[in-house]
Design brief:
Blueprint: H1 2-13, E1 16-18, H2 43-55, H3 62-69, H4 73-79, H5 82-89, E2 102-105, E3 109-111, E4 114-122, E5 128-137, E6 147-154
Antiparallel strand pairs: 1-2, 2-4, 3-4, 4-5, 5-6
């Protein structure tokens, strides 16, 4: 537990800006489609795809449907079906991600087949929330070798002390 808290603090302290609302101009790790799970997608590709889908959600909740498609089988079992997942995403804990103003990714940490990725969200109203995405590489079944989300947890707003984080990647 102490390592997880330390990891989250390190990630929050070193968030790297990624301008997701702009066209892709930075290095892509893959040319694979990012609207559904694919073994060619890295954990960071999945987090970017999920965040973009939340940012671009529409009246038909197509963005939320894309997010659900990246949910791991165990996550889907706990949060699905989609009709149950949509109100969960629209709840106060996750609604800041919907149509947000900006998204900043911190460096991810992968141990074996699990990745933790910190994400800083600036909501439409300007409030800031840090989320930690937990992804796992699926070992078998329909999604074998695909990185999928096991969970997304709101952590806290970032502290306003210290210098701004260094930008390590711009998408």
């Amino acid at each position: 537990m102490r390592m997880d808290i330390l990891f989250i603090c390190v990630l929050i302290g070193s968030l790297a800006t990624i301008a997701i609302a702009q066209p892709t101009t930075g290095p892509a790790t893959t040319q694979a489609s990012t609207d559904r799970p694919n073994p060619a997608l890295s954990p960071q590709d999945v987090v970017r795809a999920v965040c973009r889908a939340m940012q671009e959600n529409n009246e038909k909740d197509e963005g939320i449907a894309t997010v659900f498609s990246f949910a791991s089988p165990s996550n889907r079992e706990a949060t699905g079906p989609l009709e149950r997942f949509i109100p969960l995403v629209k709840s106060p804990a996750y609604s800041p991600m919907l149509n947000c103003k900006s998204i900043e990714l911190g460096p991810g940490e992968t141990k074996e087949n699990v990745t933790q990725q910190a994400v800083k969200i600036t909501a439409v109203d300007g409030t800031v929330t840090i989320y930690v995405f937990i992804l796992s590489k699926q070992a078998d079944g329909e999604f074998k070798d695909c990185w999928m989300t096991d969970g997304v947890m709101p952590v806290a707003p970032p502290a306003n002390n210290g210098p701004p984080p260094e930008v390590t990647e711009r998408v």
